[in-house]
Hints:
This protein is mainly α.
Amino acid sequence: xxxxxxxxxxxxxxxxxxxxxxxxxxxxxxxxxxxxxxxxxxxxxxxxxxxxxxxxxxxxxxxxxxxxxxxxxxxxxxxxxxxxxxxxxxxxxxxxxxxxxxxxxxxxxxxxxxxxxxxxxxxxxxxxxxxxxxxxxxxxxxxxxxxxxxxxxxxxxxxxxxxxxxxxxxxxxxxxxxxxxxxxxxxxxxxxxxx
Length: 195
């Protein structure tokens, strides 16, 4: 097991607690998306998103076993695409068919946790849970660059504390870029509403 360092704890506070809290706040305060998102901004943000996704993929490439040994994130009954993804896709002329406007569906996640706890106590299997629509037999069926922003930028505590400190350092830059993408979309949408 990986030895927990100060870097692990700081990364956890910054990119699990604060980052996810910020995304939840941004999503909750965002107004309805415009019918026609800014095409130029959407293209620019999509380029930034793909670069950040690619960097995160390269950094986390050797940690696939951390996800495979758990897999819980892919079994939560929430949509992964959010308003932020929809803004980019709609602006590129490729609107998403489905997204649920919640960056984290907390009631569903808490409910699932309670159900899993009771199932574990009873010794019953968890096979009845409906997984993510993109989960296949060998993992996610979406190419990395097409995955929802949330799926790429989400690091659970198990993943964080299982990584080498040097990898955590390398993740700072692409995660900061993804956070700036969320901020730019929130600002663009809020500004358009006030205009």
